[in-house]
Amino acid sequence: MMVSGVLLIADAGATLLWQEPVSWFVAERQQAELETAFAKPPKRVLRGKPLPGDSIAKLTIPKIDGSYYVVEGTAAGDLRKGPGHYDDTPLPGKGGTVGIAGHRTTYGAPFRNIDDLNRGDLVRIEMANGRFTYVVEKTSLVDPSEVSVKKPVGYERLILTACHPLYSAAQRIVVFARLRNRDLKSTVR
Length: 189
Hints:
The protein is an alpha+beta fold. Helices cover 23% and strands 33% of the residues.
């Protein structure tokens, strides 16, 4: 029982200071699989019609040293693999507001430090059809039921969402970023 108690305390400490270790291990394996799938996407992804769980993009956030493969969908199973694209928002390059959600304390915690992003920080998305660079404009806290953040605003933008504060789902933190640059590939892979 002492060993079990020590392991439980160690797990709780690791979760508080870093992230949940067991789900981290699962997410690392999933990210490796997504990387392989991203390198050779199926035709449905190339056509912009991915299915839930498909590897659709590589998301890089230099300020927080984040680099993750993004899946289509935001269901629990999708977010266990990595950040997920809200399927009711367009893909990058299609106009409107692109939405991506991620965990902060479990499954690799891709958005753990999302609250460190400030105005002017860059967010990059690489897809089969090109690369897109966004510049952070602001960060807001909203209720979990607030969906207006996904509405189009007259220019192309990206929102990154996660639960807030850490270890709670009381609110959502939303990072708003405006498209600065697109580098479309002349031929699709």
